[in-house]
Structures are given as structure tokens and as C-alpha cells.
Write a structure and sequence with these properties.
Length: about 400
């Protein structure tokens, strides 16, 4: 519960009276971006003819539109500066969470803050998120979003498993990108018939006291879609601390994975689940194959050398190691039982394959979740490791101990 002082803050206006005030906060930037926040919590972001307008806020099954989520304090305005630049911030206090809008020169940050621990926030207004802010009215402009474990562009009016963000709204004059700003695996996109938005991922056991979930809307500096995405990426890197110029100068492109050409066998590659380890028994063209990976990849390496293709590393995907259940034709399913090459894949073994057949080429190795019946769990390896096992997966509390 909030303190009496917190509840008293802003009590000079009733909710009805506050709604009669047109705007309490307007931030006009050096560019075209304009942000306005009403006393009732509605936010409007304008960039030229593009408009994003919030229409609701929810926490579990409580929503502002339904009356269950009530304003208890604010709006409270303040100014400041952080790694993204100078900002004007407006905060509103609800029963159970605070929402805030921070307007910068060419981006807007939306914050959800939880002053108290929330246990099992069930019965949410969305099956994918248990909280919602911002929730934008379904855009009338052209838009698209990214969906899937292997992201691809798709519809912008529907959230899917691991999909729905980033969301891009655009026209011939410019674009806006909406996404999470941090804690990316703790959030999820959400939709209804009235809005598209995001919040804390549904199904969490609890939201800790003091937790903040942040999202961002970024405006491009030109009508170019590429410039807009560059600006969005720069904002995320700046916030995470990875854009420090000295650090980038010291570390960028120093490893073989980023500094040179690589040959990958992951999802989408021709040799993804190719050969006997493919449960369908067929390669990507649907023709039967009886060739081991060792034979075929040795031939591939030879062809690369003959064509003088300067590959600097290779990647082995999830096809090389044993799993605890069947794998689909696309490679999905099954947890790792032992992170070594199956004899049916590399009869000579991984070490011989890499050192002899591939000339010691640096390798990138895929690994998915550990199986609760993996050799490492059942044999308590490495010694003393107390694995955390659950249905379908196991977690090593000290993962670096697996790779001495």
C-alpha cells in the first residue's frame, strides 16, 4: 500500500475535474516529434502525419477503462537528463503501479513501475502480457511487426508467441519504431480489438517490488526506413551501455564471428538437418540421402577451398548432438542430453572432424536447453553442481563451470 503522503499527492483535483483539463504536459522537440499527456493518462505521440495514441492501462484484470485501475496521484512533471539526453517526464500513480512518459528530442520512453510486489498477476486483459502500458489505438497508417523465434515481418495488429515487436508505423514522410527498451525477455507484446501494446510477460509468478519495465518509441531523423532503424538501434545501445565509443573501438569486430565471412548450417541453411540425423530422412529438397554430415561437410569444405571462398569460421547447429525426444523436420523439439557429436553425424568424432577435415576452422556451436535427464544432471556433473530441473528443461546455476 502507498503511504498517506503518496496518496495525498495530487488530491486537489478529483478524477472528474482532472479529465476536464485539456493537457498538462506538452513536449515539442527540435524535430517533428510531439508528445502530449492528459491528466487522465492518455498519451499522444505525433510525428508528421503519424499518430500513436494510448487508449487504456491495465494491471492483471484491472483496467482504467473498466474502472478497476484508479488514479491515486499525479500527474507529476519533472525534467532531467540521462544517457539518452534531456527529457521531460510525467508520472501518474495507479492502484498497484505507476506509469510514466519521458519525452526526449526524437524518442519517447514509456515506463511501468511497481512500488509493491505483485504475486500471480493472473486473469490479465491479454493472454501474452499481465500488464499493459502503452496500449496504442490500432494504427490507421501502414505498419508491420516482427514475429517468431526466427523473426520475420508480419502483421502489426496481432501479438504472437515471441512476436509483435518491434512494431513499425510508417508513411511516405517518416516512420516510428515501438519496442521494449530493456529486460526484453520479461516483456511481451499484447493486442485486443481496440489496441496494440506491451507489458510484463503473462505467466510470471510475481513482479518484484521496485521492478521497472520500459518501452520506447523512436522517430527516424529522415523519411528513410533504414535511418529510422539505425536511430532505434542507437537508442537501445545507448541505454544498455554498449555504444560507448571507446569500448566499441576496443572490441568491435575483433572475433572471427563478426570480422569475417562464415558458413552456417542453421535454420534456413541448406544443410540444416540434412542427412541421417534429419528425422524425415530427406534433405531440404525432399530427396532421400544416406550421406553423413562428416562426408558431406568435408566435400563442402573442399569446394570452398577450390573456389577460394575466404570463410573464417563455420557454425554447427542443433543437428549434431543427442536430444531427449524427437525433432521436427524444422529442427524444433528435444532438449540436450549430451553436448557431443552423435556417431551418426561425425563417425570420426567432433575433434577429428574439425581439426582434420575442416582444417582447424574456428567453430560456432549451437546449444539449446539442457534436458532434465541429461548425462550432466543424472551424473551430477561437474562435481558438486546442483542442477535446477523442471519439466522439459534443466538449468545450471553456475553455467561457466560446465566449460572450464
Amino acid at each position: 500500500a502507498r503511504s498517506a503522503a503518496q496518496k495525498q499527492q495530487g488530491s486537489g483535483l478529483t478524477r472528474k475535474m482532472m479529465m476536464k483539463v485539456l493537457l498538462v504536459f506538452v513536449a515539442t522537440t527540435a524535430g517533428a516529434l510531439e508528445v502530449s499527456v492528459s491528466p487522465g493518462g492518455s498519451v499522444v505521440v505525433r510525428s508528421g502525419s503519424l499518430v500513436l495514441e494510448t487508449v487504456d492501462v491495465f494491471l492483471g484484470n484491472l483496467s482504467a477503462s473498466g474502472g478497476g485501475l484508479r488514479l491515486e496521484g499525479g500527474p507529476r512533471s519533472e525534467s532531467g537528463e540521462d544517457v539518452l539526453g534531456r527529457f521531460n517526464k510525467t508520472t501518474l500513480e495507479w492502484n498497484g503501479m505507476d506509469t510514466a512518459v519521458k519525452a526526449y528530442a526524437d524518442l519517447v520512453v514509456f515506463e511501468q513501475f511497481f512500488p509493491e510486489r505483485i504475486v500471480k498477476p493472473l486473469n490479465a486483459s491479454s493472454s501474452l502480457a499481465c500488464t499493459g502500458f502503452p496500449l496504442f489505438r490500432r494504427p490507421s497508417s501502414k505498419c508491420f511487426a516482427y514475429h517468431g523465434v526466427f523473426p520475420a515481418m508480419g502483421t502489426c495488429d496481432e501479438a504472437t508467441h515471441q512476436g509483435g515487436l518491434p512494431l513499425v508505423v510508417y508513411d511516405t514522410e517518416g516512420a516510428l519504431v515501438f519496442s521494449s527498451l530493456e529486460n526484453h525477455k520479461a516483456q511481451h507484446a499484447a493486442t485486443s480489438k481496440d489496441w496494440v501494446g506491451a507489458g510484463v510477460k503473462a505467466g510470471v509468478d510475481e513482479i518484484p517490488q521496485g521492478w521497472t519495465q520500459r518501452f520506447v518509441v523512436v522517430e527516424g531523423k529522415t523519411p528513410s526506413m533504414r535511418d529510422t532503424f539505425d536511430a532505434w538501434g542507437a537508442a537501445l545501445r545507448e541505454w544498455s551501455g554498449s555504444s560507448d565509443k571507446r569500448r566499441m573501438a576496443n572490441n568491435a569486430y575483433r572475433d572471427v564471428a563478426h570480422s569475417g565471412l562464415g558458413f552456417w548450417t542453421d535454420n534456413g541453411g541448406y544443410y540444416h538437418y540434412y542427412g541421417p540425423s534429419d528425422p524425415s530422412g530427406k534433405n531440404n529438397n525432399g530427396t532421400p540421402t544416406a550421406t553423413t554430415y562428416e562426408e558431406v561437410l568435408t566435400s563442402v569444405k573442399r569446394s570452398h577451398d577450390e573456389a577460394a571462398i575466404p570463410f573464417r569460421h563455420w557454425q554447427f547447429d542443433s543437428w549434431f548432438y543427442p536430444k531427449d525426444s524427437d525433432v521436427s523436420a524444422g529442427g524444433g523439439g528435444g532438449a540436450v542430453t549430451n553436448w557431443t557429436a552423435m556417431p551418426s553425424v561425425f563417425p570420426s568424432g567432433m575433434a577429428a572432424m574439425v581439426s582434420k577435415n575442416l582444417g582447424g576452422m574456428p567453430m560456432i556451436m549451437h546449444n539449446r536447453q539442457w534436458s532434465p535427464v541429461s548425462d550432466y544432471v543424472t551424473q551430477n556433473q561437474p562435481p558438486g553442481m546442483e542442477w535446477l530441473a523442471a519439466n522439459g528443461a534443466a538449468v545450471a546455476p553456475a553455467p561457466l563451470a560446465l566449460f572450464p
